[in-house]
Design brief:
It holds the Pfam family PBDC1. By secondary structure, the protein is mainly α. The chain has helices at residues 3-8, 11-23, 33-56, 68-78, 90-93, 95-106, 139-151, 156-165, and strands at 118-122, 134-138.
């Protein structure tokens, strides 16, 4: 199913209700499969838009947030040796990794909109969003990794591959 088909099938009232539902705090819900489906569609749409962006604009010129400089410098101070070209899920998911990520992420609360909102992150930056190449991350983790990939030239491979197709 195309990502637009799911939202279109909701109609205006349904899409409006979905937008409202996604803005409520997580504590307001149990494990509602409809909400999970809406979240998945929103996360997928975000990923698709971002990938199209780095495919069509030279990544080093992209500005993802007003805090890009702060996010990047803090990220590289905190995660000096993190291989961002090919991330491992353990870099984000192991208990030790979470203990390093938590204070990093929390310092952006109030600075980065929806800083802890769930998003999709590519593991290998030279590949697209596939089931094998995608993991869940918070929005500020996504920004930190992708800002670094853009500034350090790792996302250039996606841009150049798309330019060769054109």
């Amino acid at each position: 199913m195309a990502s637009g088909d799911g939202l279109a099938s909701l109609g205006v009232e349904g899409a409006s209700a979905a937008a409202h539902a996604l803005s409520l705090p997580a504590e307001a819900y149990g494990n509602d499969p409809r909400l999970e489906a809406m979240w998945a569609m929103k996360a997928y749409n975000h990923a698709e838009i971002y990938f199209n962006l780095i495919s069509s604009v030279e990544p080093k010129f992209l500005k993802l947030t007003k805090q890009d400089d702060q996010i990047y410098s803090t990220f590289r101070e905190t995660f000096k040796d993190l291989d961002i070209k090919v991330l491992k899920e353990d870099d984000l998911k192991l208990a030790e990794a979470k203990e390093r990520w938590r204070p990093f992420c929390n310092q952006f609360e109030g600075l980065v909109e929806d800083f802890n909102y769930g998003t999709l992150l590519r593991l290998d930056c030279e590949k697209g969003y596939t089931e094998e190449n995608t993991t869940f991350a918070t929005r500020v983790q996504f920004f930190a990794v992708e800002i670094a990939r853009n500034r350090e030239g790792y996302n250039d491979a996606v841009y150049k591959a798309n330019c060769l197709k054109s």
